[in-house]
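Consider the tokenized backbone below.
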């Protein structure tokens, strides 16, 4: 039985009394779902191509369209669920590996939603963020173990290279090629205006964006795409990507259909060729090898830039982080299993890795026990969805958070999970010129700034409610967190008490 005989996942409901055959839906759909039928003079739909991106619904001038999930499914079976059966049919039909995008959608525990924030009342009164100063600035990098004074009794301020953020949030790695030029422009401009940072991802840095270098983190992945001396010198920091949360133990892959024009030149590979990053760095098989790359990058940039090492959250992450902290890295970035990506093997995305909440707590505790917490800063990502998630992450021990899915949602993404096709109807995960132009970078920049401004206000309000007036005082302050619906083991790993204790 072929997949073609299964009823489409989504149905296009069109109201004839409202449809004026203006053909906007036909022009706007990159998946060619809609077309005008000359014989009947009506619009018809090929529902098998619909990915529920909602662009046609959003732009229909008469609200004649609605996309609904089909209720024509296989018989209910708790073990053999509808999606499982469809996936087997797909693989039986194609013989290929299943690919998915935009993070793990399975109903696994979201620990952020089981952690509550404590509040001050009387003995430690809250702070009014509208009338009293609140410090949301963060400095990422190595910190001295103690305050040192010079011969005149003044504090020595000769710190190693630091990243200064106006708030504890940065835009995570999304490579040029996986997302569009206009999406990168939006991220770069917003980071510059906000006083935070955005990450190039593993696709190099387009020459137009070198002017945002002071707010750019350049990434070095196993494929070394787009990596050269000028690139390394352009950014404020360098990130070595060892892994990412959506596909731990797996390398990167950008289809050749996206390697066109400037993407090809920026990545320094031929047009149309697949950009495949191997799973391991072939010069890194130990912490000693990692240390050599860390110091090679520092040497290449005259020790003026902090070096970040990014890893996926896996079961032995605390031991891995301990080794990274000893490798000479200044910052460790940890990506949880709910992290998004343009394309990942479905089985890996849904079954490999651990939640960022548990990984963060384990790493922070391990580094504190070993007395090396100040040697590195911790940045975490993997489905940071709101200002409250940021506050909880910092209280668990993070210095700052990476966001990516939240950022592309602000740009207009509808999580239709079709990034790997290159047919993003919102101009974000595409290289087709007709689709790219749908994202106005000026509007995209404004929306990202609005989102971060709102989050910053909320962070201040939450901190004020706790009676805390700085991110530094919140970092690792687990006394301000309580768990609900968590078992004893989960509470122990998180290092928090249950609500009511």
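A designed sequence for it:
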């Amino acid at each position: 039985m072929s997949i073609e005989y299964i009823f489409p996942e989504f149905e296009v409901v069109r109201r004839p009394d409202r449809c004026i055959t203006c053909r906007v839906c036909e022009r706007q759909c990159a998946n060619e779902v809609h077309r005008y039928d000359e014989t009947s003079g009506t619009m018809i739909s090929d529902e098998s191509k619909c990915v529920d991106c909602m662009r046609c619904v959003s732009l229909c001038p008469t609200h004649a369209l609605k996309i609904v999930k089909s209720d024509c499914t296989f018989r209910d079976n708790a073990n053999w669920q509808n999606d499982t059966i469809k996936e087997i049919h797909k693989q039986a039909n194609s013989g290929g590996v299943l690919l998915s995008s935009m993070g793990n959608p399975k109903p696994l525990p979201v620990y952020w939603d089981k952690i509550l924030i404590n509040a001050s009342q009387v003995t430690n009164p809250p702070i009014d963020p509208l009338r009293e100063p609140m410090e949301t600035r963060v400095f990422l990098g190595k910190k001295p173990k103690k305050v040192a004074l010079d011969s005149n009794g003044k504090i020595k301020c000769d710190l190693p290279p630091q990243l200064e953020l106006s708030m504890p949030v940065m835009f995570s790695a999304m490579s040029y090629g996986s997302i569009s030029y206009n999406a990168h422009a939006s991220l770069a401009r917003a980071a510059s205006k906000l006083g935070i940072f955005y990450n190039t991802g593993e696709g190099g840095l387009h020459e137009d964006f070198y002017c945002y270098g002071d707010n750019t983190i350049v990434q070095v992945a196993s494929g070394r795409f787009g990596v050269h001396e000028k690139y390394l010198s352009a950014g404020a920091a360098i990130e070595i990507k060892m892994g990412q949360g959506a596909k731990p133990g797996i390398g990167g892959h950008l289809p050749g259909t996206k390697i066109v024009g400037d993407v090809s030149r920026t990545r320094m590979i031929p047009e149309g060729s697949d950009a495949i990053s191997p799973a391991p760095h072939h010069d890194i098989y130990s912490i000693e090898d990692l240390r050599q790359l860390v110091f090679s990058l520092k040497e290449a940039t005259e020790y003026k830039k902090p070096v970040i090492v990014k890893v996926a959250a896996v079961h032995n992450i605390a031991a891995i982080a301990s080794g990274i902290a000893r490798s000479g890295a200044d910052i460790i970035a940890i990506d949880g299993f709910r992290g998004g990506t343009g394309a990942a093997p479905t089985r890996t995305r849904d079954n490999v890795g651990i939640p960022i909440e548990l990984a963060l707590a384990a790493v922070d505790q391990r580094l504190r026990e070993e007395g090396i917490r100040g040697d590195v800063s911790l940045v975490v990502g993997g489905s940071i969805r709101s200002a409250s998630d940021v506050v909880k992450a910092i209280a668990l021990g993070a210095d700052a958070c990476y966001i990516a899915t939240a950022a592309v949602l602000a740009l207009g993404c509808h999580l239709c999970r079709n990034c790997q096709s290159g047919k993003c109807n919102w101009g974000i995960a595409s290289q087709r010129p007709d689709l790219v132009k749908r994202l106005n970078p000026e509007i995209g920049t404004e929306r990202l700034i609005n989102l971060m401004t709102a989050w910053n206000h909320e962070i201040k309000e939450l901190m004020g409610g706790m009676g805390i007036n700085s991110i530094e005082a919140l970092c690792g302050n687990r006394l301000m967190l309580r768990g609900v619906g968590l078992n004893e083991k989960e509470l122990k790993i998180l290092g928090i008490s249950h609500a009511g204790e």
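The longest strand covers residues 307-312.
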